[in-house]
Amino acid sequence: MRIYAIGDIHGHLDKLKAAHALIAEDSARCGDIDAPVVHIGDLVDRGPDSRGVIDYLIEGRAAGKKWVVLKGNHDRMAAMFLRDHPLVDTQLLIDHNWLHPRIGGVETLASYGVGVPEGIRTYQLHPKARAAVPERHRAFLEELPVLHRVGDLCFVHAGIRPGVALEAQEEDDLCWIRSEFLESTDDHGPLIVHGHTPVDHVTHYGNRLNIDTGAGHGKALSAVVIEGREAWLLTPEGRVPVLQAR
What is the average pLDDT score of the chain? Predict the structure, then answer.
């Protein structure tokens, strides 16, 4: 089975469209234009056009594209802030929230035309944000799944908790986990395809495949094609094998 995947997008619509163009070229060469595409989460924050990214994904799925879109921790933070009563993700550091300069919520709201002036209070900003972000965008973020299983592959945003069955995994871990998962050499059963923790280049570790190459920090947004448990990076020049790290 052939399946495509795209790393953390972080509001970069131009990079997302370029990734889809590479996928279209590869699928045309393979004669398999209906292969699914999994977006690994972190659709929003930091980049300039989170609104455009969400519109693009909603419209593509409405047009019948076989696109799977997963929830990342940034998507979860945005959804929680935009509820009737704003919430702060309990996984954040005690002095952080979605609008902290390191997180990127300010850039996301800017893409909807909402400024966040210094000193504004949540009760003042929240109704403006709710009014500016379309209900279908808020519902889209809320309803994103956190795990997608296909054969010998399991797609999640951040990773899984080692030793816990896939059906028993918790959303906190699937969206946020780092060291316990990244340092594990366990055989998780399926190959875990994830993002969340940026790497310099797409890396295959045998038990997991990290496809976040730092678009949220001004670096590349990567698209890969996976056949079995093997992966290739898609480039304008064609496929480049992703070799297992040693």
Answer: 97
Tokens of 40: 């690994």
Do 52 and 59 form a contact (C-beta atoms < 8 A)?
Answer: no
177/157 Cα distance (integer angstroms): 9
What is d(CA 47, CA 105) in angstroms, rounded to the nearest whole number?
10
Q: pLDDT tens for residues 77-105?
A: 999 999 999 999 999 999 999 999 999 99
Q: How far apart are alpha carbons 128 and 174 in whole angstroms?
A: 30
| pLDDT at residue 174, rounded to an integer | 98
pLDDT, mean of residues 157-169: 97
